[in-house]
Design goal:
By secondary structure, the chain is an alpha/beta fold. The chain is about 40% helix and about 25% strand. It is built from eight helices and twelve strands. It has helices spanning about 5-30, 35-45, 50-65, 125-135, 160-165, 180-190, 220-235, 250-260, and strands at about 65-70, 75-80, 85, 90-95, 110, 150-155, 170-175, 200, 215-220, 235-250, 265-270, 275-280. The strands form three sheets. A seven-stranded mixed β-sheet has the order 8-7-6-9-10-12-11, with helices on both faces. It has a three-stranded mixed β-sheet with strand order 3-4-5, covered by helices on one side. Strands 1-2 form a two-stranded antiparallel sheet. Helix 6 (about 180-190) links the parallel strand 7 and strand 8. It is globular, with a radius of gyration of 22 Å.
Amino acid sequence: MTTASEKTTGKVLMDIKAIRQKVFETVAESKTRLTPGELEKGLCQKFAADKRVLKTAIRELVADGELAYTYNFGCSFLEKSFNKPTRISKRIVLKSPGMLYRPESDDIVIEIQQGASFGSGDHPTTRLAVRGIENILSRKEFFRKGIYVKALDIGTGSGILAIVSVSLGVQTALGIDIDPCARAEARKNVKLNNLENRIEILDRNVEKIDKKFLLITANLRYPTLKRLCSRISEITEKAGSVIVSGIKSGEVSDLLHIFAEKHFRCVWEEFEKDWAGLVFVR
């Protein structure tokens, strides 16, 4: 026979489980970073959650590595944790060196060393770009018989997009970045994944690129993408693909028009937290 005490305990446990899910979803889906106070206040108002249960749920999510505290200008925030193997697309799983992960049959596990450069998977623009690459490279028509595919990653940062491209079947890739810190980190990540013979990282401005590519990736902000559109068109092979990210949802319409003027057709788009990723085919 269940006692009143056991019933109460069971209810609290169910409350904690439900609140854990709500806490995680709220943090993961928020378009802005949330302080612990903002998170607690919002959930208390929305779900009439008990503060003690809410604090317990947050504490457990941090202990389990689902959420993490970050700090900026003396203020603490709760954000989704990437200090564990993280799936960022259907096939791509990112992890730090030394982390254990048992891959599923179709997984591609990429090691990325946390550093100062963007692109380690903790930002929606990185995930959108990776999903765009996976989408276009999963199409049978992309790898036409006898065609050697070389990719270009503009503003390579951590090198993740070049690494993903090669890991998904592109023969070789070139990552360019004018930031020496980014180049150093990208080379380390390329080496971590044993791809030194297939990926080259150079200090090069895209205006000085004199070759054409079947695949181009660019996780850059809208003004830069707008400025580089003509140059990207010039170095894209006929029937080649361009994956862009780093743009806000409200900028998509204008960017679609700009690329359409250069004879690009959008074949894929996805949104996350007010960010957008697009795949164009020329």
